[in-house]
Amino acid sequence: MTERIPASSGPEEQLPSVLEAGLKRRGIELPKQEEPQALKTQEGNELKTSREIAHERAEKIAATEKTEAETTHFFLRRKGIPDEPRADAGGAPEAPEARPSIEVLKEQLDAARDEFLKTEKEYGDGTRASDELADRYYDARDAYERARAEYVAEDVLKYVREETEILEQRVDAGEAKGVFEKLHGAWGWLSEKNMGKVWDPESRILKIGARMVNLRTAISGALIGAAWMIPGAGVGVLAARQALAGAGMTFMAYDLQRKYAEVKAADVSKLDKLAPQEVAEKFHALAALAKLKGSWQGLEGAREKLRERYERDMAIAVAWGMDLQGYTWELADKEQKKEGARKWRAVGAGVLGGLGLAGLRHFAFGADVAAGVKAPAPGLPPVHEGMTPLPSEDVPKITAAISASEAIKNATEFSVPFQPGESPLHEARKALALYLSEDESQAFRALSPAEKLWAEERLWKLTQEQLKAAGALKDVWQPGDQIAFKKEAVQQALSELQQKFDSPEKLKALAENLRDHVGKVDWKRYAVAAGHGAWEGDTGVRFRVSTADILREPKANERMLDALLEEARRYPGITVPGEEAGTLLGTPGGAGTPHFEYSFEDGTVVSAEEAARLELVRDKLAEAVSGLDAGEYNAIRTMRVSDILKKSFWQLTDETRWPEGTRQTHVDIMNRLHLKDRIKAAFEALPEQSRADVGGLDVHDFIRTYLLKGGTKV
Amino acid sequence: MDKELIRKALGANIVEELGLGILPEEQKINMLAAVTELIGVRLMARVHEALPEGDREAFVKSVEGGSPETLFPWLKERGVDFDQLLLEEIAKAKEDLKKRAQAVK
Hints:
The complex is a heterodimer of chains A (714) and B (105). With 714 residues, chain A is mainly alpha-helical.
């Protein structure tokens, strides 16, 4: 039996009061809409189904919008927040712009679609189109895509209004009047509570991350695919994977609204004056902005500065058992003075700053750190009012960390075991990193990556000679083998470096010479904190491929990178390193350069160059760079290039119709068209005499050959 | 917890799924904020409905003056799986919006 509920009456009939109130509290204003008098007629107490209510609401809304389209059409307006300063407007706040009604948007969409259809017919497969026609075609396509997006966005708001109305009536019909208002109030209260105290993941660092998450943030994040913010045991795997990368993936729609202008400006000039919590919020808001923009372009500088400060704050907060809300630099400074510089350094004030969250995890929770240490630490930081005290089980970890730092400081040599995929140079790099982490002279703390590369190579040469003289030099090093690097050799290499590159010009030349090599090192892996290298937490060297390495096309966007990462995760036998550690390399939380990595868990280790040539990798890369999902790609992968160039959006004939059997949404087809554009651009760049042959290739081979670097002519 | 539900709720970027990437950031943010509000209120209603009738009033009162520390265990004791409801509401909103957008050519 269909449930029938009484329609509500009175003031709650007005559009959408509760939603409006909620949004207003957050600085978003829904402009008042006066319903036409005729629509205010009461329906009385007759019972109606949800469908009927929805239908009526839709009609009302449509009528209202139509009536008021010119002046008060429903739109969201930010309130009390200065609009984003515009370069051409001298930074003056703009008056909120009235948006056209949904009917007007529909008309615009229809017109844009008609124009696109007309132009597409003229354009054909594009191979014989004039420049002028090509311009018109792409302009028409863009205009259509924009018009559709405008319409869909407005339709989303319409949906929100309708659904809110339905919900309100349903709730109040079944309960005493006003319950909906109370529930909405409940939402307002709960949505802004920090979830850290109620979400109880196993990892302490996840708890710290969770302390910055409220429910509203979590839902907004989920809407844009930032999964980790959802509190719940069932999402543990996703949460574990993404939470630590969350430094770069978090999203706060609400905070972003409040801080939009500030974030947009990416102003980090006053970073030193910000409290840790403010830095975290700013960082997350910036990341959210990038996510919405679909790119970090123009925000990289601010990102790196914020990330560095954020990770340093997190490191210290973790080390001292505080959360970011309770932690301030002043407090930390007092602790430093009380406890002395040595111990402070041991918990990683400067060192952890460059380590990144994977390293923090290792530092704070690494099993090797906790193992075998029983005695409580002498002189551990006292618990202050407002601080979350360290759990007793963390005390031995701090003790061990201090001991490990001491061990490095007093060492006469550094013995570092080989991990899969490593060469002696990797071990030299580790030895150098360990030495520098406890170098009290501070003389080499600011070594550039190029200088480090030179020094590690020199260190290995020196050590190689020593091993040869001792008859201990091997041709092949296996995982588990160790090389002992003498402290004197490290110091000698550094000393030679200093002498050889004693001017800015020479240093500049060195940086230039080693530029390509510097970019291929994952420097975060060689960070040292509390006597431990970040490498201890991984399974060895992976190869690393940047998007620039993979694609022939000059522009590789973040979305493409995400696709690559997803593809890598799905690939049997290949894992994306960092999953276990919770880092998502290639994202803003990871290294600066977009990249992704593969590792072969079965022990097969290959160089980056070798890996990029592997058939299985290239196959997967071809699929990933297509920008299509697996089903979509499979539908076109065997299609001839000459045929795909004839496909169109409107699919009016067999020749222009895309393969069937897959989804055919607007977004899918636009993605296909974008791939077609890329194929066409690469095709047209070929010498004319070879186009006929290349046109016979299938899409997959074409991508492998002409869109990926290093492709072999087929 | 149902993995498919998790995937549906958390797996996709609705901005991309709806083809809205071309819009200005502010417009996207406002849209997300509105949908977030809807999901939140729906969630509260679902929790309310899931409670035994005798506890509903207490729920409304507890969220007005209580704390999450006590609220979540309280809900759990009464068999309300908050996480599940949260994921369901997010998934539902995403699915509804995708369907609407797919109808727009």
